[in-house]
Amino acid sequence: MRKLLPIGIVTLAALTGCGLESLFNLGHQAYPRPASKISGTAAWQGAAPYQFQVVDGNGKALEPFSLTVSGESYLVQLPSSNYSMVRAQARAGHLLLRALVPFVGPESSVTGVNLDARGMTETLIVEANLSATGHKLALLNASAYDDPATGDGTRKKIRADFDVAGPTQDLLRMVERIIAKGDPLSGDADPGFFLAPALDAGFNVTASPVSVAWLVKQDAVGNGVDYTGDGVTDLTTTAFDTLLGQVAGLYKPEGCPDDSRIRLVFTVDFNQGCLSGSCGPLNRFLWTTDKPGKQMFFVGWVHKDSDIQDPAIGAMLGNSVPNQLQMYDDGTNGDEVAGDGVYTIYFDVPRDPTGVEKLRIGYKYTWGFKGQQWTGSEEWPGNSRIIQVDDMGPIDPITGKGDGFVYRRDVYQDEASNKDLSNLNPKGNGTLGWDTDLRGCGIPEAREQMVERVSPTDPGIPSPGNMCTCGTHFYTPPNLATINVACK
Amino acid sequence: MTRSPLPRATVAALLMVAAPAARADLGNFDLSGKIYTKYMYQNDNTQGCLSMSNPFWVDNIGGHNGACTEFELQIKGKISPRVQAGVRLQSRWGFMWQDWWENGDLKPGIIDTSGESLGMNHASYIKLRGAWVRMAPPIPTVKWVTIGSTDYSMWNEWTIGKARYIDRDNGTGVFVEGEALPGGKLSYATGAMALPKLWAGPGWQTGVSGNDPKAALYGTDWAFAAKLETRPTDDLRFKLIGSLLQDWEADKYSPMLTGAPSAARGADHSVALASRFRGINATLDGAWSPSSLDWLAVTGLVAYSSNNVNPEYATNMVRNGQGFSPVVFKTDAAGNPVASNSAAGKLLVELMDPLQMGLSAKFEYFDIGSEYNAVMGARREADVLLTDGIITGGFTRGGQLPTLNIANEFQDWDEPWYESCIGWNGATALLEFVSGSLKVTGEGTIIGYNTNAQGRDVKNQYPDFLYTNGFTDTTAFSAASDYANVYARGKDPRSVYAEFQNRATYLGVINAQYALPFVAGATVNGKLKYVHDQDKRNRANPDDNYLGRSYLGFVSLSLQPTNELKTTLGYEFTYWTEARRVGSQTGGYYDDNTRRHTARAGLTYLFGGANLSYLVEYFHKDLLRDQTANYNQVWNVWRSKATFEVAW
Fold this sequence. Notes:
The complex is a heterodimer of chains A (about 500) and B (about 650). Chain A is built from eight helices and 20 strands. Chain A is α+β, with helices and mostly antiparallel strands and about 500 residues long. In chain A, the strands form seven sheets. A four-stranded mixed β-sheet of chain A has the order 3-4-1-7, with no helix packed on it. A four-stranded antiparallel β-sheet of chain A has the order 13-12-15-16. In chain B, strand 8 (about 220-235) and strand 9 (about 235-250) form a beta hairpin.
């Protein structure tokens, strides 16, 4: 043994620094995958098998990496991220139940998302309202629906109304009676309730969430459904639908407009063949070096000419540090079409409701690596783009207010549009002032632009690669909601 | 009297500055150099000086027409009586005589007249290929501590195998050798070796993000090995070797990597490691050579391997790489990843002319588990079994190795080929008769397969290397298309698993060597070989029943007209009949017949430290296939290879 000791000591000493330290990890238990967790209970008891899903505001199923079902409890783990206005839903036999989850953040949990009558009724009210008003669940501002800071919002109102006599409570009772008749083990191919309702603009239900066929079938087997509670079996959905339409009209799930902020959207077209602001050819890589792995970044700052000088806004815009704020071309974060070469980023900035104090911003786009310096990544050396944050439109003819967006579509490396100095547009003198109408479109160049509209009803699409001609109307991005807050 | 323009003090100072600094004693330097030149010709449209290059990524090194030169400089130093060091500087292979302009700038996809298109690997730059320091510190039991380059030859083929020649000093590590008990009673060696990132792990890499999106860390990866060797008596020797391959990745869910460095999240400015791959191999081998029976030698080995892949960090190449994977991605019945474990053993009894009549015999039994896999075992240039094996031919040498990581690449057409013997279970009897200038050996081998199975999961767990049947044609194998088996070259030598396998192989070999008594230096070599390889693959499908018969005849004549010159002339005939060689369960199976004539002539000329060799070969091959399924193919290939080497 005395001989073996030095062997061990010498070997250990000689091998130190050769990966031995890493062997301390041999006992390491892998960290759990960070998750956004949603948990709750289902309305039925026991071990009835059911299909569980979490769907986003567009109805698209999200892919959890873990789903645990134990008795009537469930826990679903989504990849850690921000999720807003999603729905947990489960299907078993006759039942298709849903519950709204206004928001779950990265590495956080939302509990009590119960697939019961209260959760289902709230969801039905919101779905019915959105169907009637044309709003999209995916675009609802979660904090406008359920403000986590104050607890205010539509959710609070609905839930409060569940507990006081009135139409909302009546609807809840109907839902309770219907659920009570559901058989999670029925094995039916189609659910008897609750399908997504459809309503017209007058809040009239055009597609009921309850199946008439199911009501009739229940009656035929001697287990009729009296959802109105009047002692008479209901064979139609009329009463339910009428009440649903009435209740849906009582609430504003989208919240109320926030006049103190405006949503500032920058998009940049990086496609080859785009035209400059003077309708001339462009070379995207005149100043920028292209390399594999580069990404599009936005960098902005509060301009020295701005009335509003707020360091927080500067920080939000990137404080003149290039290649920090990544833009999106993946169909998320306001980007409209994934992979179309048009990159998007947006900011919610404060505005003066009186319009007296102007917010003016300087900015640029960079095609670079994260953290790269200016050289080789910026559109051009020196100078910058400028924009005054005015909501030019479209103007609501009733309120006289804009749409809550300032939307800018730029073409990468375009030195003939809103570039402040050494502007190459021959219609100008090389210098762009805040109110210079460079292209003769009737509005200053350093503003939200107008875009083309194919037909009077067309929402308008910025012309691909061509922002040099004057548009006809201001653009409201379809993939972004206005900044709403919880109604008081 | 003239006065110096400089004051004395200044002169003294200048003299001190000008005086030579401590200089190295040239006697401590040992310099050696080598120039190696290779010429290749083949009647095809490739260019370069390497028959078969990278099998996976297309490179611009491989090709058959050209002349290339490399230079090597070795410097060894004797720092002190107990400390030595050495380096090897070598020019990069790939420079062609026809392209002496190449400056190393790469123009991907462009070959123009600028002299800057092919990249550094054609610019013959000098690269540090090996560096080592060896010392013998006065520490009890320690004989040597080596830091730096190694060829891994201190372990064995079943654990960490000796690196192939071209990688002979690419590996690096720290090694301690010592003797715990004097007289060879107990000696030991330990080593920690940087894990080669390009082949020693799942997907032939240890965390290269461009290849495996699940992995990115290779600087943390090491292999560890230890050896204990004892000779309790003069007749008996035992050797115990164990190795651990550890491929780490950053635990991707370490709080520092998944969000803000907030203590509330558990982030602590450290990143934990998660295992991507862990391979354990161990062998115990012994040799008994009784001094009282000097005609008897018995050697045996038992081995164990355990390979554990973490699919969270290693892309499953069985599923996503068309079945090409050097490791098994094993799962339990619930689909959870588990380690792939297996044992192996072999026993060799040698009787060396016990009857004093020139007749010797060797008997070997081998049983290699169906999942034994030495991921970092010998990849080529070694042989663990006595048998001639299936893959070898007349001109083609080779061997069997217990790994899926065999490397039949970066080699020329005249070099040996290796096949995997994972799962082999059988025995070899080899008789050798020597009488005067005649030597004859006869071998009989029977091989069963522990890998035989019905419905084996080759889609998710067991790599089948896509091509599981047919004799491998090593002669016609070319890098251009045969890595993808475009020319029906038979099974991949690494393919040991198949969805349906019920295989048995019998082979017989006779080798004869006769030194012609009437011509000085003349030797005639002959070889006859028959392989009967039957795989009744799918028991439920009588049509899925492979039967391959290989007949080989080979003869060569070596002459040595002068002390410097040696010539050889040889001919090989190969004929394969293979029933149900190609096809599918649904489409049926078809027969192939292969006939190949190969003639080769060569010479070597050794003179004054210069070494010239030249080899020219012609082969004609007919691949006769079932006309209802495929067209026939013909090869008429001329090729040659010359090397010239001087070392000083």
